[in-house]
Amino acid sequence: MAMNENFNYSELCRLCSLKSNHQLQIFDKEGEQRQILFKIRTLIGSVTTKEDVLPKNICQKCLYKLDMFFEFRASCMATETVLKNYADTLKQLAQSVSNQLSIVERGTGAPATFLNLLVLVVLAATIREKTCFVKIDNKHTIPFASIVACK
């Protein structure tokens, strides 16, 4: 089988192996500015070096996909961080409310304890983006707030 005389291996895209008129060099100045090598290594895990025998170009279509996937990955990672922080905050807030309720129910809390509890209930309502109605229970020497209903 004869090779096409016009075939030039180095003109192929590093990622899709297609030949294109509009390619970018991975290791030139623009390639470095656009962090192509970093994105390839991060997303694909490919060991890409100037010294390897594989093509050093990337076509516009693959470059677009690489950029979009890199942005998507960064967005997913940021979202995960925000959600974990949100969950941790809710967990800490629930623990604080529980601790404050225990202090008030035992009657060992100072009047400031009730105020702290009320602030925590308002914070919980704000974080949960719900309007909460607070009922004051007069059974205890120091009244405490309990959430009756949330809408």
Automatic annotation (TrEMBL):
Among InterPro entries, the record links this protein to: Znf_AD
Q: Does the keyword Zinc apply?
A: yes
Binding residues annotated for Zn(2+), in chain numbering = C13, C16, C59, C62
**Organism superkingdom:** Eukaryota
Task: State a single Gene Ontology molecular function.
Answer: zinc ion binding
Secretion signal span: none
Instruction: List GO terms (cellular component aspect).
Output: nucleus
UniProt keywords, alphabetically = Metal-binding, Zinc, Zinc-finger
Q: Which residues form a coiled coil?
A: none
Sequence ranges assigned to domain ZAD in this UniProt record = 11-86
Q: Which PANTHER family match?
A: BCDNA.LD26519-RELATED
According to UniProt, the name of this protein is: ZAD domain-containing protein
